[in-house]
Amino acid sequence: MFRPKVPTMPQPTGLVTPPAVVEPTAVIQHAQATIAPMSAPAPTRPTVQLTPGAVVALVGGGTAVVLVVGAVLVSMLLAVAITGASVAVCALVIRSLITSEAKRR
């Protein structure tokens, strides 16, 4: 009852290929050929040429990215500052309530 039952598979489901036969080959040494000095390959990509319009677009895009990232960071800093101030106010109110309760007794 508690013994696991191993399923039997009558036929394999994957592709079965016989192992490849590797035949040894002979190594033949040839006479060394003189190698001609190779020149530098010609560049296959064209060089980037920046036009004044492209420079203006790049500067404008970079400025926009800096402004957006700055606004996000400033808003996160402001959220942390507001949260800290509200926690401090809550702590003062709770402390005041506890001390006033202790004075009444």
Task: Please explain how this structure is put together.
The chain has 105 residues and is an all-alpha fold. Helices cover 50% and strands 0% of the residues. The chain is flat and about 105 Å long. The model has no long low-confidence stretch (mean pLDDT 83).
Set down the secondary structure blueprint.
Blueprint: H1 52-104
Compact summary:
The chain is mainly α and 105 residues long. It contains one helix and no strands. The model has no long low-confidence stretch (mean pLDDT 83).
Helix content: 40-55%
Element-level helix/strand string: H
Outline: flat
Number of strands: 0
Global mean pLDDT: 83
Terminal Cα separation, in Å? 71 Å
Strand count, sense and closure of the main sheet?
none
What structural category do the secondary elements indicate? mainly alpha
Rg calc: 39 Å
> With helices defined by DSSP (H or I, 4 residues minimum), what is the helix count?
1
Proportion of residues in extended strands: under 5%
